[in-house]
Amino acid sequence: MEPIVVEVVRGDAVESRHRVHAVAVADGRVVAAAGEPGLVTFLRSAAKPVQALSVARARPDLTDEELALASASHLARPEQLAAVRRLLERAQASEDDLECGPEPTRLAHNCSGKHAAMLLLCRERGWAKAGYRLAEHPCQQALRAELERAAGASAIVATAVDGCGVVTYALALEAMARAFARLPELDGAERVLAAMRAHPDLVRGPLSPDTMLMRALPGWTAKGGAEGLLCAVSGEGLALALKVEDGANRALGPAAGAFLRDLGLEPGVLGEPELRNSRGERVGSLRTARVERHR
Fold first, then answer.
1. Beta strand residue intervals within the chain, DSSP E
2. Which bin fits 42, alpha (ψ -120 to 50), beta or left (φ > 0)?
3. Distance separating alpha carbons of residues 293 and 132, to the nearest angstrom
4. Nearest to 244 by CA among 20, 12, 70
5. Of 88, 128, 174, 256, which has fewest CB within 10 angstroms of its CB?
6. What is the pLDDT of residues 232-284, one digit of tens each?
């Protein structure tokens, strides 16, 4: 099974190529694949919808905007930061309590919504706030249990520390797709997924593959992760996981678009984006090369 190849074309010449592995799961079985479905990689921020389940159950009064930010990798736009502040208020916490580190500030860190939701979960459960990001803290243990319910405990191959300081988990791509396929069945997921679909721009931004996928395909929920990862699930339970082998996020959109078309879906603007320079001039494009995908 050959991976999807995304070519970066400048002028009339191919400047770079990215290999992308992808798998689709439905009814518990693999229905399409490109590359290696068993490729093991880290879930990174694609875990956020799963991690938001605990706080969604603990606080049924959370708004859709707040749940979307709990699942987001935001761009620090005013409306996104406003929702993070509301989560902090509910947690009776401040920006200083966020353990995500300053990028450029703790509040503006793209993971601050997830961290604020973790602080809120700590308040609801009576756990100490300090060290909530560490693997031994009850907060991270609870969130691991959420992932185990979605993916199965045996699916977790390894753990490490994510860019924002919390625990991240390594799984096979196929296991990630299975976890997203199971996600709508889990307690609290209906609210989390509906919030993300209602506010896709809060989840990331208008040019990101996860936001664009949710806008293009009604009923789908998608979440990207660092180093070129994307997971998504439809309202009917068809789930995808894609990984750019070299970690280049720019290849995700074209690869996801090609894979969705292979599944008979129309992904809209996820297709083949233009390449522009700092002057705004069109200088090339990203395109998918011909590959054979096995179904």
1. 4-10, 13-26, 29-34, 40-42, 158-161, 167-172, 221-225, 229-233, 239-244, 274-276, 282-288
2. beta
3. 43
4. 20
5. 128
6. 999 999 999 999 999 999 999 999 999 999 999 999 888 778 999 999 999 99
